[in-house]
Records
---
Amino acid sequence: MNASFHPPARTLMGPGPSDVNPRILEALSRPTIGHLDPAFIQLMDEIKALLQYAFQTQNALTLPVSAPGSAGMEAVFVNLLERGDKAIVCVNGAFGGRMKENVERCGATAVIVAQEWGKAIDLNAVEDALKAHPDACMLAFVHAETSTGVRSDAQALAALAHRYDCLAVVDAVTSLGGIALEVDAWGIDAIYSGTQKCLSCIPGLSPVSFSERAVARIRGRQQRVQSWFLDMNLIMDYWGGSSRRSYHHTAPINPLYALHEALLCLREEGLENAWQRHANHHNALAAGLHAMGLPLIVDAGHRLPQLNAVGVPDGIDEAAVRAALLQQYDLEIGAGLGTLAGKIWRIGLMGYACNRRNVLQCLSALEAVLIQQGMALPQGAAVAAANARYQQG
Amino acid sequence: MNASFHPPARTLMGPGPSDVNPRILEALSRPTIGHLDPAFIQLMDEIKALLQYAFQTQNALTLPVSAPGSAGMEAVFVNLLERGDKAIVCVNGAFGGRMKENVERCGATAVIVAQEWGKAIDLNAVEDALKAHPDACMLAFVHAETSTGVRSDAQALAALAHRYDCLAVVDAVTSLGGIALEVDAWGIDAIYSGTQKCLSCIPGLSPVSFSERAVARIRGRQQRVQSWFLDMNLIMDYWGGSSRRSYHHTAPINPLYALHEALLCLREEGLENAWQRHANHHNALAAGLHAMGLPLIVDAGHRLPQLNAVGVPDGIDEAAVRAALLQQYDLEIGAGLGTLAGKIWRIGLMGYACNRRNVLQCLSALEAVLIQQGMALPQGAAVAAANARYQQG
């Protein structure tokens, strides 16, 4: 306890945090300035504009909440729901379940559209629920379920929400920067994300965005927002467009330097290029996993490139494999959550960590550890398959 | 917007953030690892132990909330209060007012003991309120009011709370590391602080600690905690002592590296030495301000060494002085808040920023700017007075 902490040099291919670009770590460590410094106010404006680009939105109320993605989720629900409201919540994984928790803690009722873990949200089931609950004011769903690696059709779900006069609320923690996401074109009313997934920034901030319709609802509330820290009526006065910023809480200055740099990296690459990169490396990883006979549990049409849920073969101790990868290769992959605990691994290919070196390292390390664990695998087949896939372009 | 952000090299002598030790910035920028990595779990244990030292407590539930001090405040109230509860809240500045907001947003009733801004909390008034409201379950107060520079008698207030069977809840955002604070010896039940004041870490985390009595109340709640993100029943399972840590939210990994380093710095110096250092440099600053005829608005017996509220002389434009200090000297001092806006400056001497170089720089820059603004001051008198005070030891 008397010594500085020097972390091991891991490769982060779990469900997040993902590897942070050294350029972002360097930005993080620049000298701290005050949260009302004119230079910092200018930085805030730039972060807002860069987030608008990342979310593909013109929403004025677009900013990073000063806490992790879970707080961004809570910010959306506590601002948009009042006691007695009703929200339809799609649950096809751990984070849909967390949405339900949030709705209920706001004193609202959550109508659950449950879906088997590992499957995309069923549009018909959602429409049935919207028809059955005309008093619902919100449809909430997870775009990219980090617990299962499933992509749901956010565009179609948002359109359904509007058809039944509900706000469309989207968890984009794992989707932002990794797969197509267009807040304005799809008509999303409120969205939150995290910084430690496909933005490859450090964990601890949660970008959010609210449509004009959502802002009108926040401004027209009957009850006060139950959280002072997350009350957008107050936060707007600090992050808002007015020249006179009023103090709300002390912003996390240095993590915002890092987020700014991460968003610059994304804009330099270009959103579409980043989406394509995630798809390409996912294809190579999938080819390598297939060569080892390891199944991806999600149907090909709904797989997230950035989060690959891999079935654990019979007779293999999933925790022992993860421990060996960490100890022998400094490689972190994730375990299953909830109903999938013990049954899957989660291999992330997020942001800066989504590159050819990591794909090949992961495949060769996983193959070696599985052979150690007694599986009969042809040595080198996984890497060869991935390389062959890369050559297809 | 296309370029990396390079902050100006400020000296931070406002109400926080304070200058961050470069050693802490370097720790901040070390490679990110996973929040369930065994190496990170060990770091969490070390942070807990170091926070127990800083707070002078054996409380098992001692940890940093993953968000700024305002969220730490909210964590204390949402966990300890249920709808219908009654809390006595002392308000002698902006942050007492924020406590009231938090109590009310929990659906509880806040009984206010109001005190003029700039004065310490009156023990007799508090005892009257405790007598008048035997159904109150909590007495909440600010130890070091950042908005005014006042120290209240936390030990006596906590004792009063216990005499009337109330939990003693303390805001120590600006006191931790700067003035004497002994959580166990004083019988404090719940306390929160910030990292960007006398710990000289970056803003964004909030150390909290709960006594066994407070934990029993949290575990015995009738209603769920209204915040999922701040629910200590869940956070205990991640930060708690069990070997099997369960995931709650993704911890802000790198800021926790920085907090660990900041707490190491504090322990290396020693708490008592840090308190004495703050007192010594405050004395020198006060001598210099006195030499310029600038009044400290708080009585000598209740002044915080780390936050000096200075009356703005008649005819001086307080904002113009701050702007000149920032532009000409890269020196940040703070403005007044609330009823003191426009009437005071707030000069911080916090943590790493509390040193002789900063005291002398601040005095000489302030003197020069006041002379520019038309005040007749003997050149060099402020620095000479401070140096004379230093020589007294």
---
Amino acid sequence: MQNFEYCTPTRLIFGKGVVERLPDVMKPLGKKVLLAYGSGSIKKLGLYDKVKNLMKDFEIIELANIQPNPKYDPSVLEGVRLCKEHQVEVILAVGGGSVLDCTKAIAAGAKYDGDPWDLISYKVKAQAALPIVDILTLSATGSEFDSGGVISRTETNDKIGYLDPLLYPVCSILDPTYTFSVSKKQTAAGCADAMNHVMEQYFVEDSTLLNDGFCEAELKSLMVNTRACLENPEDYRARAEMMLCCTYGCNRILSLGNSPSGWPCHGIEHALSAYYDITHGEGLAIITPRWMKHILNERTVDRFVKYGVNVFGIDSTLGKFEIAERAIDETYRFFESIGIPMHLREVGIDDSRIDEMAHHIAINEGLEQAYAPLTEKDIKEILLASL
Amino acid sequence: MQNFEYCTPTRLIFGKGVVERLPDVMKPLGKKVLLAYGSGSIKKLGLYDKVKNLMKDFEIIELANIQPNPKYDPSVLEGVRLCKEHQVEVILAVGGGSVLDCTKAIAAGAKYDGDPWDLISYKVKAQAALPIVDILTLSATGSEFDSGGVISRTETNDKIGYLDPLLYPVCSILDPTYTFSVSKKQTAAGCADAMNHVMEQYFVEDSTLLNDGFCEAELKSLMVNTRACLENPEDYRARAEMMLCCTYGCNRILSLGNSPSGWPCHGIEHALSAYYDITHGEGLAIITPRWMKHILNERTVDRFVKYGVNVFGIDSTLGKFEIAERAIDETYRFFESIGIPMHLREVGIDDSRIDEMAHHIAINEGLEQAYAPLTEKDIKEILLASL
């Protein structure tokens, strides 16, 4: 077991109707609020009007049109400009993980005099950040309970995850009913994202019975509840449990003391969505079983056996490679069964830029230090197998 | 799934050698420190000298001799007096859950003009508290990661659990090597305490796959690792995993969204240790299987089946009451196997005050609202069965 340090100070307010608490949460944080949201789904939900109404005693500056795989230019830059111009005191993110990730970069950038990219690229350490509150409308990234975000910079094909303890949301308001209208496609992609967050913490050299059990519970719950959400999008219990599962995804509570994994599937997928702007969760679902097949060997097989037996209930008396291969097949088939396109070609990616992406990943993601080390050649093989 | 609110802002610093971080943790909190500890085991450990040496730039006021089942008089009262007299700015608790619980009452009492019992008994809501840092030397209560404490008042036989969000430790320093010298008796009692914390959250009307999986992972890990600690007290991995398991015991992370259970075994045990000052974990281990037997019925049997199959691996094809009864037997046998005296008489409790205790519990613990409601008659039967 490795030494670790952990602190997640975010307050979670969870359940039906909790958005009513918004004014009480915001009051101590400031009067001037940047309201950040995406392409308008919060207006269809009625949540935009609800928030504006609840916040009528505040001064609201709006940043709309934050896109999936949120962009440095224009969203982060525009948000930072608005915060500085209006002396914003607190950011309210309403939407999914992309909106929230974007506001994390804005929160730090607003308190920094130089180019915000200096912070995102770790050239400069942030000294302060605006406080963030969020109302979540999509279960997926876990950004509501962690200190990180992922930002894309189109002109350089960079998609960078950055972390700073200053960026934990002060409060995340989680009402599962706001996820009732999430499409089947986004529900499935959110599940794949969350499942992969767990797997990135589970497939490691050194873990504990406790953490393994936490991760296995997450994976089983995500599969059962995603199926239930797809069957009945207004199944409150299923939407609620899925939301909580996703919330635990990235703040390390599932793997405290584990050795690092290198987050290889995320490393590979970030290039896919940087180059092709695909849905992150779909990219992860496509990569995951190919990555698993690629790294399965004498050294890693026991983790796959544990995964297969405890998550999928595969007969533990079978041979270990048979269990491992069945577990990988089950993983693939689960993603397929929830409607995810399981080939890169189906999401518009052909072989024309595989070499370039493999090179970009190899030099930027540090995957030679991953649990199962990946060279540029390994990455290329995984990408080719995913076509 | 129930609505909930959650926030645990405590910073955990975990692992071998992390006590060296103490001065950096303490510096921002103040110069005048109340150093609180128990009956001297930290001196035998060398931890007292280590702490004094690390803290040589601070002004240290000492409160020693805090007892297990920490007492309002003298410990809390004396601590509050010292804090006020010396204008203490921060409390450093070094020891187990009893020391830490005691300092929580002191932290609130030091910032209150009246009788600290007003706060503990919820007559008055605390408005402020001194910050607390702890160095833990015993895995058991989870007080290092929650906002509660339990205080005993001898003259009235009260043992009261009180909670206040002001009382989360600012930082808990958790070095498993300081638990190497914990006796077999205290190791087993700590395990029973932590297991019961999990069970009090698991046996509820309304739970989730996720929370059930978390709880089952905790229980399995606690059993395996306690056995390993008893076999080899210096097994770092086992001590470390046990420490982390215990840390999650009482801050609700294992049961967010679950319906309340009423914590019945704690309600009953608090009277036992208030009247007889027995070891809390031993009292819980004795009560738990008798409570289980008492509440097993058509309404509750399915929870016991889940518990039996998932925690003890009992054959799921057996009849449900057979599984449930085997699960209760396994619980009893596990506690017995780690050396816990499993009868009240073995810890010095006879039948002379059973009526009085049952009455005290019935009027003070609200167990008619528990998951399986308990009247005074039920409580008396559980106590008699535990003799």
